[in-house]
Amino acid sequence: MPLDTSMFEGIRVNRPATERRADGFGSRRSVKKAYQAAWLVNAIRLIDLTTLAGDDTRGKVHRLCAKARNPLASHIREGLDLGNMPLTVGAVCVYPTMVPHAVEALDGSGIPVASVATGFPAGLMPLHLRLAEIEWTVAQGAHEIDIVITREHVLTGNWQALYDEIMAMREACGDAHLKVILATGELGTLSKVYAASMVAMQAGADFIKTSTGKEGVNATLPVSLTMVRALRDYGALTGHKIGFKPAGGIKSAKEALQWQVLMKEELGRPWLEPDLFRFGASSMLGDIERQLEHHVTGRYAASHRHAMS
Ligand SMILES: O=C[C@H](O)COP(=O)(O)O
């Protein structure tokens, strides 16, 4: 849709109220035993299993993809009585040059390959190079592209420039899904986070995503609540459902429960499915597997037993 600043200008997000509401997601509800196991199994389906490190190699990506195909050890699957239920992560997320390795390792699995692009994580490269990076990465076989925005456009309130940039990236993606990373830890205020979320959706984002994982402050519940309310308002005004991806620093099974409660309470059941919700996480699956093993066996394994992610 065209840029419509009236959808966010003049909206001020009340931080103390946002923080109070966000506090409740961790404390008001407590899901236990079989219910907790079910929510954790669901969280696995929602993970963009990620490696974004300078020492990524073909071997490391192949190991990650093997885990993506079989996220739980067989004795845990059996203990949970999952039978033949297919269970994989939502996607595997890598740097552009690792995409061919992920495509190769996930062949036939149906698991999409996501890639960051556009000069991730800072994005401070000429626009034509960022667009060329998207096109190159899609040509390597990526199904989903996680782009970063120019934070300066948000900090200076240059909404037209932000809209034009994301729109150009949307076009460069072709059929690939576009996730727009706002890098909220660098945007200053929750009101800016709300406005940037709206611009990203107006410019054609399939998902809005909190963080790269490389900022000083990454995914938090108050920021997520702000983005989710923007999603809700955008849906009410346009009829379009947009996805949400919190990412960066989400490591524990407990957090997997908190974010799912947030989505269920704020947006409802459709946002507990991988087409509308993903966790960007490089190291949460290990803790989820550990908690599920405890549920099944009554014992905790040492965390190094679940070292991979
Ligand atoms: O998009 C995914 C993030 O980079 C993952 O961040 P993390 O390594 O803190 O889990």
Descriptive overview:
With 309 residues, the chain is an alpha/beta fold. The chain has a domain at 5-28 and 94-279: TIM Barrel, CATH 3.20.20. The chain has twelve helices and eight strands. The protein has an eight-stranded parallel beta sheet with strand order 7-6-5-4-3-2-1-8. Helix 9 links the parallel strand 5 and strand 6 (207-209). The protein is globular and about 55 Å long. The protein starts with 14 loop residues before the first helix and ends in a 12-residue tail after the last helix. The protein binds glyceraldehyde-3-phosphate. Glyceraldehyde-3-phosphate binds next to strand 8.
Tell me the layout of helices and strands:
Layout: H1 15-27, H2 33-45, E1 47-50, H3 58-69, H4 74-79, E2 91-94, H5 99-105, E3 113-117, H6 127-139, E4 144-148, H7 151-155, H8 159-173, E5 177-181, H9 190-202, E6 207-209, H10 221-238, E7 243-245, H11 253-266, E8 279-281, H12 285-297
Parallel strand pairs: 1-2, 1-8, 2-3, 3-4, 4-5, 5-6, 6-7
Bound molecules: glyceraldehyde-3-phosphate.
CATH topology of the domain at 5-28 and 94-279: TIM Barrel
Runs in which pLDDT lies below 50 for 5 or more consecutive residues are: none
Strand content: 5-15%
| Name of the CATH class of the domain at 5-28 and 94-279 | Alpha Beta
Estimate the mean pLDDT confidence.
96
Major β-sheet, in short?
8 strands, parallel
Helix percentage? 40-55%
Q: How many helices in DSSP terms?
A: 12
Order of helices and strands: HHEHHEHEHEHHEHEHEHEH
Shape: globular
Q: What is the name of the CATH architecture of the domain at 5-28 and 94-279?
A: Alpha-Beta Barrel
Enzyme class: lyase
Family: Belongs to the DeoC/FbaB aldolase family. DeoC type 2 subfamily.
InterPro entries: Aldolase_TIM, DeoC, DeoC/FbaB/LacD_aldolase
Keywords: Lyase, Schiff base
